Amino acid sequence: MRTIRFKEKITIAGRGSAAAVFGVLALATHAAFAQSNLPSPEEMWKVIQEQAKQIQALQDQVQQLTGQVKSTDQRLETVADAVDDQDAAGFPGKKTHLGGYGELHYNNLEDRHGSKDKEEIDFHRFVLFVGHDFDERLRFFSELEVEHALVGDTKTGEGKPGEVELEQAYLEMDLDAEAKHRAKAGLFLVPVGILNETHEPPTFYGIERNAVETNILPTTWWEAGLGLSGRFTDALSYDLAYTSGLAVKADYKVRDGRRKVANAPAEDGALTGRLRWKQSGLELGATLHYQTDLTQGGANGAPEDSSGLLAETHAAIEMGRFGLRALYARWELDADAAEALGRDVQQGWYIEPSYKITDKLGLFARYSYWDNSAGDSAESAVKQLDVGVNYWPTENVVLKLDYQDQDAASGVTELDGFNAGIGYQF
């Protein structure tokens, strides 16, 4: 057997590991090539060199792609840093939130006791919510509303039906890591009733907000002050607030006493406390609200100071497709002048069953009773029956149609007819 020796120097372009592998393969197969009909070592060497060139080209492509990925990562980091900088400066971003709601009403109502018929169309409310999270524990929330679409200056004789109102503007802070207890300061909705804090159109039945919460509580009702909220258990929560108060006029009508925190008299504040129990589609709530002087020292011409105590309780039930809301509220005013008008007691209640035929279509009926002069023996109560339908083409948009039938004493406006409207929230 001949001993065959290599005198050629083997050099392979590429990495050392690849050259070593190909060198070993060449040595191992050289003897076989010498004694067989297979390609000669020179021919095989050419093949190996071509493969080495292809490997080097692939390595160059991988390095190029790696550089492109790094460049893309750097650009993404730059964009993320810019968004964070915007958040820190207070510009819209992941820490700032925008929302709102609106509703358009058409009313076709006839007054059976007079000539105060109501046939009109009105963009009743256009509302924007703006909130901002300063950090994980401190946040800001606001609600700005335009009512009745058009606002003018009554002092110049250009009075329009609309109003621009700041309904909420407050800071809220979590008092513990689990956010079980929170404190807030600023202008906020009074924690009372079912609708006062949650009154977006897709969340309730009927075109107009129910008459009891409107005339007795009175929704929508906001004040300025300090608040404390939290929960004792997952089901039981509480709210406490010390705020500015109402300033009723000489007629002692509670609803007319809302000053809406606009250069409002602040001689006497008010204290509100609420407990709520919510679990498995059932909510039970009760509120007490007390003010030492509803007249704010006679700031609006009331002839006599009067304390005021409001007691309210309600239930809201959702069991499958069936729903039920019920509420009772009562004011007691301590003033001889209020008693002479029968306004020392103002109270009302309603019950509202509902049923969803489908997820998008629901029917309701509501019976309401309210009396803003319940302190005397005269018949002054108003009773109202509403029946209607809500249609939600999507969760946050609603179309509504209802019929109302009022029953009131002679000389009191009594409106019967139908209402239609649309509403949305986002």
How would you summarize this macromolecular structure in one to three sentences?
The chain has 426 residues and is an alpha+beta fold. Helices cover 18% and strands 44% of the residues. It has four helices and 16 strands.
Description:
This protein has 2 domains: 16-83, no CATH class; 98-425, Porin. The protein is elongated and about 125 Å long. It starts with 15 loop residues before the first helix and ends with a strand. Helix 1 runs antiparallel to helix 2 (41-89). With 426 residues, the protein is α+β, with helices and mostly antiparallel strands. Residues 1-19 and 86-92 have low confidence and may be disordered. The protein is built from 4 helices and 16 strands. Strand 4 and strand 5 (181-189) form a beta hairpin.
Give a topology summary.
Elements: H1 16-34, H2 41-89, E1 96-111, E2 118-133, E3 138-147, E4 163-174, E5 181-189, H3 211-215, E6 222-231, E7 236-244, E8 269-279, E9 282-291, E10 307-319, E11 322-334, H4 336-340, E12 345-356, E13 361-371, E14 382-394, E15 397-408, E16 415-425
Antiparallel strand pairs: 1-2, 1-16, 2-3, 3-4, 4-5, 5-6, 6-7, 7-8, 8-9, 9-10, 10-11, 11-12, 12-13, 13-14, 14-15, 15-16
Helix pairs in contact: 1-2
Describe this protein with a few key phrases.
Porin, 16-stranded antiparallel β-barrel, 4 helices, elongated
Q: How far do the termini sit from each other? A: 92 Å
Please write the CATH class name of the largest domain. Mainly Beta
Strand content: 35-45%
Low-pLDDT residue spans:
1-19, 86-92
Helix and strand sequence: HHEEEEEHEEEEEEHEEEEE
In spatial order, strands of the major sheet run: 1-2-3-4-5-6-7-8-9-10-11-12-13-14-15-16
Integer tally of domains = 2
Mean pLDDT: 87
Q: Under the CATH scheme, which architecture of the largest domain would be assigned?
A: Beta Barrel
CATH fold description of the largest domain: Porin
Shape, principal axes of CA atoms:
elongated
| Main sheet overview | 16 strands, antiparallel, barrel
